[in-house]
Amino acid sequence: QLQLVESGGGLVQPGGSLRLSCAASGFPLDYRAIGWFRQAPGKEREGVSCIASSDSSKYYSDSVKGRFTISRDKSKNTIDLHMNSLKPEDTAVYYCAVSKRSVYYDCLRSAVEYGYWGQGTQVTVSS
Fold first, then answer.
1. Do residues 52 and 100 lie in contact, with contact meaning Cβ atoms separated by under 8 Å?
2. I want to staple 107 with a disulfide (CB 3.0 to 4.6 A). Which of 57, 102, 120, 125 is the partner?
């Protein structure tokens, strides 16, 4: 049974940085796309970033492009989201997710493609 545990969230001032980490256990992540999503109060879940199993394909939403970087360490089975120049509008609960199906070259952007989700970690950007 795959388990995903996010960590690294917290309170940060605007312009600050955080590194979110997603640790996977119980299931190999080979041939799986990994996504980071977020949901702010009263808003729909938003896809933030994803990375293909091959690492050759990555996606960033327009709202985070140039500020966030996704990376994965297959030896540790972890996926990180480095967040820089944080803004108050980045405040949300952030979730990592693993794709339902095996896929190697594609980075899947839609939440419906993901079948395994972590519990989420809160990120609050405020002065």
1. no
2. 57
